[in-house]
Design a protein that fits this description.
The protein has 7 helices and 6 strands, in the order βαβααβαβαβαβα. It is an alpha/beta fold and 185 residues long.
Length: 185
């Protein structure tokens, strides 16, 4: 079962500069839940890797975060799929941890817990941090234009942001579009 890694905010659900603080703030991007279920039913082991500094900032509690993730998993299960694990970094950017993307600690944690290699795995993200983490760990980065994705694409195209393999990163409208490409449908 090949591993497939997804960022959360901006890829699966709508992002917010005010943070996703509770289940009422969590709104799936149209087609994303079904796309995850399609990928899961096709044999992919789905893992989510997400930076969640709102925990350290006190914007939400661990219980709030777990409630959001339980809702996400239930919705995917209702569509016939499974998320094998959700991995998050609770740290602030200035803490210098090894798990906050673009660092690769979350990817190592996914490998260890799910007993799956992330080398060569698709990693769908919307931010430069997602692309950098994917590339640094040997994953295949895919960029979606939802969330921060359109801005990330503009930064790459203008040369404002530098990514040595930027020309090789496929770009998709959203997760549903990326899933269709992955599945060849």
């Amino acid at each position: 079962m090949p591993l497939l890694i997804l960022d959360r905010d901006g890829v699966i659900n709508e992002d917010s500069d005010k943070y996703i603080r509770c289940v009422d703030d969590w709104v799936p991007i149209p087609g994303s839940i079904e796309a995850i279920a399609d990928l899961s039913r096709a044999g992919y082991c789905i893992a989510v890797a997400t930076n969640q500094s709102g925990l350290s900032r006190g914007f939400f509690t661990l219980d709030d975060l777990e409630e959001i993730h339980a809702l996400l998993c239930r919705q995917v299960e209702k569509c016939g799929g499974t998320i094998e694990g959700i991995f998050y970094c609770p740290h602030l950017p200035e803490e210098g941890c090894n798990c906050r993307k673009p660092a690769t600690g979350l990817l190592r944690a996914i490998e260890q817990e799910l007993q799956q290699s992330a080398q060569g795995a698709f990693f769908v993200g919307d931010s430069m941090k997602d692309l950098q983490a994917a590339g640094a760990y040997g994953c295949k980065p895919l960029l979606v234009k939802t969330g921060k994705g359109a801005g990330t694409l503009t930064s790459l195209q203008s040369g404002e942001a530098s990514l040595e393999y930027a020309q090789e990163v496929p770009v998709y409208r959203d997760l549903a579009d990326a899933a269709k490409a992955i599945l060849g449908t």
